[in-house]
Amino acid sequence: MIKRLGFSNFYSFKEYSEVSFEFDKNVPESISKKLSTGTVIGIKGSNGSGKTNVIKAINFFFSFCLDKFSYYGVKKETRDSLPYKSFFGSDDVTEFDIEFLIDDITYIYELEIKNNKIIKETIIRNKKRDVVLIERNEHGAIECIKDFDELKNINLRYDQSIISIVDKFKFNNKMYELDMLNFEFVKLLSNVDYNGYYDFNLGVEGTTKRYKESEELFEFIKSIIKSADSGIKDIVIKDRLNEDGEKVYFPLFIHENEGKEFFMPFKDESSGTKELYKKMIVYHLVLNGGGVLAFDEFDVHLHANVLPMIVNLFLDFNINKKHAQFIFTAHNTEIIDTLGRYRSVLVNKEDNESYCYRLDEIKGSILRNGRPISPVYKEGKIGGVPPIFLGGKEL
User: Fold this and answer.
1) pTM for this one?
2) 2-187+290-378 belongs to which CATH class?
3) What pLDDT, on the 0 to 100 scale, is given for residue 80?
4) pLDDT score recorded for residue 281
5) What is the 3-class SS of the chain, one letter each residue?
6) Which GO terms describe its molecular function (predicted)?
7) pLDDT of residue 388
8) Regions in the chain scoring below 50 on pLDDT
9) Which of 4, 129, 296, 321 is the most exposed place for a label (fewest CB within 10 A)?
10) Do the Cβ atoms of 233 and 253 come closer than 8 Å?
């Protein structure tokens, strides 16, 4: 699980900013459920505040550590620029760090990059105290504990993370801890890349084929959709042959009126139902795998009442048995009441520089457990909303 993640000099974020899933002793047990690390973070902020850049930071960091930038068309044999931007083209170091909780042990990974090159890379284990497992400098020299001595003989690219090499080389000794860390980075799914938001799905036919292959998955999807749309009695899957003589699958949605059943095609359903049908497979995958889902504009095409239902999938440990994590941005305001102050992060921008904070960092009694946050948020008392001018006065 991710405990916290921080970054600096990345897009609109100049100074160090952090997103934390951690719960301290002040968090009520009804919220923490006796866990030190949460499973949901919602990010709010006005248009242009930098919300998407938080998701971009997560995706870039994880992709960099796995050497996945071939997805962006970056040829690694050349000195092409890495697919990110520093704060207004700053030449300062861009920093990332993350803490994972794995088997009750905290692992800290720190990365510094500049001019498309790794300046520093550090892996730390913290059981009762910090132990530096591996440290790499800007010249590629590696210092490490004895278990990782083989790394010293590997000639890494200037922009290649140590995390990425565990499945690329055959080691004499087991790189167990590196394997574990690599797996934590593999578990991310995101709908944001270098170019921003993209809508990833398998298409209706591809998604329906997956539902046909897994009864458990299909029942999960149906339960969500029927809860969200009371007009849908059931969903069935049919097949036909396409122009190439191949079998393809398609859904029919059963509606009932005056005791009669009507079978409606996908195209005639609401935008919200279509969105759930195509996207719930992603939520199911992450929940079943104990992964991390980083979604920008999570609420697109979804009714406000559906959002808490999806968030609660990650908060209900009878469903989220592997403690999968969900971090998202949304335009919907009321979702902040579902999240509460320990799961809500606000992003503000001043002088074109973004910064963020979790709501429990706000001092005083303006926010209290059990009270709605959205009224206070709408009034602009806690940040994250654009200024509104009426009669020449800023409210």
Assistant:
1) 0.92
2) alpha beta
3) 56
4) 95
5) CEEEEEEECECCECCCEEEECECCCCCCHHHHCCCCECCEEEEEECCCCCHHHHHHHHHHHHHHHCCCHHHHCCCCCCCCCCCCCCHHHCCCCEEEEEEEEECCEEEEEEEEEECCEEEEEEEEEECCCEEEEEEECCCCCEEECHHHHHHHHCCCCCCCCHHHHCCCCCCCCCCHHHHHHHHHHHCEEECEECCEECCCCCHHHHHHHHHHHCHHHHHHHHHHHHHHCCCEEEEEEEEEECCCCCEEEEEEEEEEECCEEEEEEHHHCCHHHHHHHHHHHHHHHHHHHCCEEEECCCCCCCCCCHHHHHHHHHHCCCCCCCCCEEEEECCCCCHHHHHCCCCEEEEEEECCEEEEEEHHHCCCCCCCCCCCCHHHHHCCCCCCCCCCEECCEEC
6) ATP binding; ATP hydrolysis activity
7) 56
8) 70-79, 389-395
9) 129
10) no
The predicted-structure confidence for 18-69, as pLDDT tens digits, reads as follows 999 999 998 999 999 999 999 999 999 988 999 999 999 999 999 999 987 6
Whole-angstrom Cα distance, residue 86 to residue 89? 5
Determine the Cα–Cα distance for residues 69 and 194; give it in Å rounded to an integer.
Answer: 10
CA-CA distance, 95 to 38, in Å (whole number)? 24
* Contact present, 349 and 78 (Cβ < 8 Å): no
The residue type of 294 is A
Instruction: Say if residues 14 and 356 touch (Cβ distance below 8 Å).
Output: no
Q: How far apart are CA 181 and CA 175, in angstroms?
A: 10
Q: Which two tokens stand for residue 86?
A: 């520093």
For residues 5 and 3, what is the distance between their CA atoms, to the nearest angstrom? Answer: 7
Tell the residue number behind the tokens 């979804």, with chain if given.
302
Tokens 């998202």 belong to residue:
328
- Exposure on the CB side of residue 161, measured as CA atoms within 13 A: 25
User: Would you kindly state where each structural domain of the chain is located, as residue ranges?
Assistant: 2-187+290-378, 203-277
Contact in structure between 200 and 286 (CB atoms under 8 Å): no
